[in-house]
Design a protein that fits this description.
This protein has about 210 residues and is mostly helical. It is about 75% helix and about 0% strand. It contains seven helices and no strands.
Length: about 210
């Protein structure tokens, strides 16, 4: 049986690996059906900025799921969150690899994004299973919408980034559906608006920093 101390060490290990260790995907990086066209320096900068935002979002996902797993007393729900966290690691690895290919970097503020999302996850986990899962559903819906907006903004020639973003969006839909089936409640409108505002701060800042 996992003790509280074991759970804390596991959460700390996830944080350190997310922020400082190279992520390892369990599935291959999605590849496009057609090759990239030659990208200008401006194209590369735009693609890198958008993928940096997506990587920061995946850092937040790791923090959110880890905190929710830590705070829930329900073993089945804890396993659900840990499984989702592991699946999101693919996205973390894919976006990091694409940033490397574009000759760019991850957000310098990733520790801040992680801490903020972890705090939200702890609060959500303490409010009960339905609320905690409701946060997952709303988060994944907002992330899906955000990713699809990137499909409109990515350079037309950057088919590699487009393939990654498309697969990530499909996976987020699946995670939201899983959370709904597990008993998620619909969050109040003001809570959704607050989540959007917080996400807007992160995405706007991570685009540059």
């Amino acid at each position: 049986m996992t003790t509280p101390t074991d759970a804390l060490f596991s959460a700390a290990d996830t944080a350190l690996r997310t922020l400082f260790a190279p992520p390892r995907a369990t599935h291959p990086t999605p590849r496009p059906a057609s090759p990239d066209r030659e990208l200008t320096n401006e194209d590369k900068r735009l693609s890198a900025a958008l993928m940096r935002v997506n990587h920061a979002g995946e850092v937040c996902a790791q923090a959110l799921y880890t905190a929710q797993a830590l705070s829930t007393p329900d073993p089945a729900l804890r396993a659900h969150f840990k499984r989702a966290c592991a699946e999101e690691t693919d996205h973390l690895a894919w976006t990091k690899r694409r940033l490397d290919e574009l000759g760019s970097r991850t957000s310098l503020l990733n520790p801040l994004w992680y801490a903020g999302a972890f705090g939200i996850g702890l609060v959500a986990g303490r409010l009960g299973n339905a609320v905690s899962l409701g946060f997952v559903v709303e988060t994944e819906r907002q992330v899906e919408a955000h990713l699809m907006s990137h499909m409109d903004r990515l350079p037309a020639g950057d088919q590699t980034s487009r393939a990654i973003v498309a697969q990530m969006a499909a996976d987020e839909v699946s995670h939201a559906v899983d959370a709904q089936k597990a008993g998620a409640m619909e969050l109040p409108g003001p809570v959704k608006d607050l989540m959007r505002a917080a996400a807007r701060v992160m995405t706007t800042t991570a685009h540059y920093v």
